[in-house]
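TASK: fixed-backbone design
INPUT:
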């Protein structure tokens, strides 16, 4: 029993390569520290090394096909693997997946804060009405983290919800049936919900009609002390915000932010819809002696932020065609490019053609990198 609360956590793990990265091990450790029973359910396969890590933190590790995504995993654990009677012996049930990084400080702080809140269920963050207005929800707890209290666990209708929950065949169905469906069920029965971000002062921020973990990343971490970052909140365009958050976390907490980049870069590489691959950018930078970003505007500076986050900023400078130079900004006609140097095109599509023509006069095309995958195909760069 943790602080007089008997708690079970059901933790869903999925990795497209079957790996268990360091961020996940940190999360497993925190989950173990605040639970009486930690159940891990793996959607899909996992490598042998990953199994060793999972079983280090839990004696209850289940493996299943990724049938129905998170909702299907929770259903199987609740109804089939662990069972309703066993779950009802606990004071709290936590449903959590692995789609976020953190916590940056102890879960105990979070659960201690929420312990005094008069609510029936809670989550870390919520979306305001506008985000899901077509479903008639006033607002909803976001489905990556739910905590249910005893009165809900004792309601037989709660278990009927899980028995009837269909196995979603795609992501949209999964959100509709599990996240929205569960929030709708709770609201119709007048259960009181709350979010950790609300009690930390973030209510006004949420009521800006935004998705807080995606649109208000700096505020929720730096002003309202949200303990996690959602993986999907990190993108090529949000790197500057993430770098600010990283600096804050490294200064304020003992969390090793390197494990965030380790995992996110792998997932960025797996996203075929991503226009920019950070992993490919990393490989290019590592394989060249000196890197020159052609263009020192917004796009060029975003690229520099990413390269610095990869620990490769020490060998990277900007080059421009004309204009004012600076300590790390050079005119392309005034530098000597060696065979193992590389140029990264850091301009928008409207200038790409002209800049690329200049670059190939200075450098072998194999040493030129266009971050945008679609543009790279257009210019026949592999």
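OUTPUT:
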């Amino acid at each position: 029993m943790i602080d007089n609360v008997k708690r079970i956590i059901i933790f869903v793990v999925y990795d497209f390569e079957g790996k268990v990265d360091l961020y996940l091990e940190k999360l497993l450790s925190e989950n173990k520290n605040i639970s009486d029973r930690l159940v891990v359910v793996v959607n899909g396969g996992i490598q042998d090394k990953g199994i060793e890590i999972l079983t280090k933190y839990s004696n209850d590790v289940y493996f299943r096909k990724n049938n129905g995504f998170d909702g299907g995993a929770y259903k199987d654990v609740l109804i089939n693997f662990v069972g309703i009677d066993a779950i009802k012996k606990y004071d709290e049930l936590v449903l959590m997946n692995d789609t976020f990084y953190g916590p940056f400080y102890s879960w105990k702080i979070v659960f201690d804060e929420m312990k005094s809140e008069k609510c029936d269920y809670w989550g870390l963050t919520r979306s305001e009405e506008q985000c899901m207005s077509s479903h008639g929800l006033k607002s909803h707890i976001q489905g990556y983290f739910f905590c249910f209290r005893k009165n809900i666990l004792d309601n037989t209708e709660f278990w009927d919800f899980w028995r009837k929950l269909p196995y979603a065949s795609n992501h949209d169905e999964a959100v509709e049936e599990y996240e929205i469906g569960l929030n709708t069920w709770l609201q119709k029965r007048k259960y009181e919900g709350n979010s950790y971000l609300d009690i930390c002062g973030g209510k006004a921020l949420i009521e800006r009609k935004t998705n807080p973990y995606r649109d208000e990343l700096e505020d929720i971490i730096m002003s309202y002390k949200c303990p996690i970052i959602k993986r999907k909140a990190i993108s090529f365009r949000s790197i500057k915000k993430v770098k600010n958050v990283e600096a804050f976390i490294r200064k304020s907490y003992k969390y090793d932010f390197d494990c965030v980049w380790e995992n996110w870069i792998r997932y960025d590489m797996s996203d075929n819809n991503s226009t920019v691959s950070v992993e490919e950018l990393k490989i290019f930078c590592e394989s060249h002696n000196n890197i020159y970003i052609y263009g020192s505007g917004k796009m060029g500076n975003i690229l520099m932020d990413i390269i610095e986050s990869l620990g490769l900023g020490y060998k990277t400078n900007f080059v421009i065609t004309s204009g004012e130079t600076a300590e790390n900004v050079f005119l392309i006609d005034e530098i000597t490019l060696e065979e193992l140097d590389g140029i990264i095109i850091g301009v928008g599509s409207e200038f790409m053609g002209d800049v690329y023509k200049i670059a190939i006069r200075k450098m072998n095309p194999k040493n030129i990198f266009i971050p945008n995958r679609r543009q790279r195909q257009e210019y026949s760069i592999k």
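COMMENT: The radius of gyration is 24 Å.
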